[in-house]
Each structure stands twice: as structure tokens, then as C-alpha cells.
Amino acid sequence: MATALVHYTAAAVSDRGRKRSSNEDAFGYSIQHGVYVLCDGMGGAAAGEVASSLAVEEMMNRLSNRAADAKLPVAAEQAVFEANEVIYYRAQRDRKLNGMGTTLVSLVVGESCVWVLNVGDSRCYLFRHGHIDQVTIDHSLVDEQVRLGRMTPEEALQSPLRNVITRALGTHSDVAPDVFELDAEPGDLFLLCSDGLTREVADPTIEATLALDLPLGEICHRLVGAANDAGGHDNITCMLVRAA
Description:
Layout: E1 8-15, E2 25-30, E3 35-42, H1 47-64, H2 72-93, E4 101-102, E5 104-109, E6 113-119, E7 123-128, E8 131-134, H3 141-147, H4 153-158, E9 178-183, E10 189-193, H5 195-198, H6 203-210, H7 216-229, E11 236-243
Antiparallel strand pairs: 1-11, 2-3, 3-4, 3-5, 5-6, 6-9, 7-8, 7-10, 10-11
Helix pairs in contact: 1-2
């Protein structure tokens, strides 16, 4: 049962992995304002880093300074729209940044509910009563093929098209995030992560790591370490938010 008295703690770790020369992931959070954001940028040169940083900055600014009477899910969606516009029009003004974009997954906290928003294939998981469930749905070509029954999950993992994102911030003048509303319970643990984790580490291993009785920062480090041990082919970012 949801409660109006839920408090939160959080930690995050980001790593460039073993193969990439730079880190195009970005994150930000404010426990005070109940805002948690993680982005995985894409684009040539440093454009991915620019896109992800702009998205995090815009989301944090808009939601941390929202009007006191603003309806939270509406304000969160509007922040996504505005972040998309900032990235898109920045790329229009600077040819070196043309085509840049970023995924986004965000958790915003109300009194007894939380809202998860996502664009792209960065994910949110809920760990509750010893089990994880994926909250978000990937906006990727292979995931859509799996949902349509045209590809098995095993085939999707091996597909050369698994990097193809069907929705991202900044690549078009408008974007539609998915929005999920959940009741929050004391003990809930939310994991926000880039695909640098989920492509390297299977859900059962993630679940077992989240079950460890360790500080949130240490759990984040263990998840990142597991991804690096499995190859670390991409940037890896993990953010944990615990309800208490």
C-alpha cells in the first residue's frame, strides 16, 4: 500500500567502460526536489556528450524550479519537451553537432507516487520484495521486433541492428516520452541505467546485486564492475534511488 511518508536516498556511478575513449553518458539528481535523470548521448565527435549534458541540465533546471502548484507528471513531460527543443535547435545552429541526440530516463517523486519517463533504450527497473521488474519499454528496433513476435529475445541480443534507436531526444523537433505512474512503497529500489549495463549484465545478475545489503554507492560500483568484467563495450551509468 502506498504511503504519503516516503523518503529517498540515492547514489550514482558513471564509467566510460573498457572500449570507449570518452563517456557520453550524463546524470543528475536532487533528493530535495525529487528529480533523477540519466541520459546516454549519441552523435559524432563530442556531440553525444553535448546532447546528454544538455538534457540533464534542462531537466534538472526545469523540475527543480517548477511552480509549487505545478502538476508533477505534466511538469515532467513539459521538461522533456523543452530538453528536446534545446538539443534540436542547438544542433541546427552548429553543424558540428548536427544529428546529435540522447536517450533519457527520469524518475520524479511525488508524495506517494513516482513517475518514470523514458525516451530511447536507457531503462528503469523496480526492485521490490527481492525481484526486479523492468518499468520502461525500450524504443529500439530490435525490441519492437521482439514485441511483434518477429524476433526472439536471444536473436535480439545478437542482432547487428541492436544499436538502432527508434526514439531519442534532439533528433526531431518534437518527441513523445513514455510515462509510467507507480505507487511507492518503503523498501522499493529503483535502478536507472544506460544500455552499457543491460547489454553486458543479465537481469538475474542485476537482481542478485540489488539484493545485497550494501550502501547504494557500493552496489552501483558492483554493477559497473560486472559490466566491465563482461567486456565494457560501452559507457556504463547506474543510478539507484531507494524509498524508505
